[in-house]
Amino acid sequence: MSLEMIANELSLKTPAYDMQTAQQWMGQFVQTLRSLVTLGTDRVLRVPADYQTTPLAFGYTLVHWFGDNQVDKEERRWFRSLSTRSPFLEGLPDWEDEAWKSEFFFNGNPSMGLGYAFLLNAIAVSWSSDQQWDNNQLEIEHNQLKDDQRIDHEMVLVPHCSHPNHALAHQTRITQQLTATIQSPIDLWNRRDSLFPSLNFCNKVESQLLSIDAGDAIFPQVVKCLLEFQDYCNNWQTESFNSATFALIARKSSPDSDATLRQYGKERTFLYNGVSFIFSLHVRIPLRGWRVYFHPEPNTHTLLIGYIGRHLPTVLFPA
Description:
Helix content: 25-40%
Number of domains: 2
Oligomer: single chain
Low-confidence stretches: none
Order of helices and strands: EHEEEHHHEEHEEEHHHHEHHHEHEEEEE
Radius of gyration: 21 Å
Number of helices: 13
């Protein structure tokens, strides 16, 4: 499974002062894309449908840049091929249902590119137009309409680059997903020991994984979650599990309430090596209300995965 790149349209919200600055922005942008592709991302840059007419500077758009003889011809050709071989952000039917229920904001500004980078498990790439883009990850606000009509608010981290140096921060993640090349749930399960050496799986997780269709949009999200778990274990240095660090490396986790555990503890009890464990700690997968329940093992710096599937019943939502 590879990683795509998604253009952050907010980074061109304010055009450059002059054409020379715009050319510099484009030069660094292309260098950043090349660095990511060299590390192993897919040769795909998803862009808004109107990206070619977006002003880089006053009177100077990407259309002008493509025809600018002051810019290296090979650089222009390479970027054109990268940005025209994939669907526009507005034309991703597999994600329409999830997208219409979600809103994403960066510093109060609606952001389609950063939001889709989160949903598509991609890397956001920005033009170096402002200091705020000089970071290898960005925190954005995700507001999601739930099935019960509640609005769920959370802050999420998006992998990000605006400089070739930022790409190095994602090397491990890119390499994991590139070398894994996980084709299907059964492929994931058969290779779990080599792909996720720090993750152990309860008995029922096998059937839960194998019930997922290989073409289902939930599958890459499950893979992403497990890769993040492994990444946390790779960096686990403290004696105990650190939920704050876990949220930075992987994603936000939360326990079930005592009331839910008293009433629905049976639904959260899973067997591993002949021993039953009651699971409470879990993370959310953006699609369909799925959850992954896990139990930290500080002595071995491993995580025990107990459940992967739809939202389990709670006191507030028993159905």
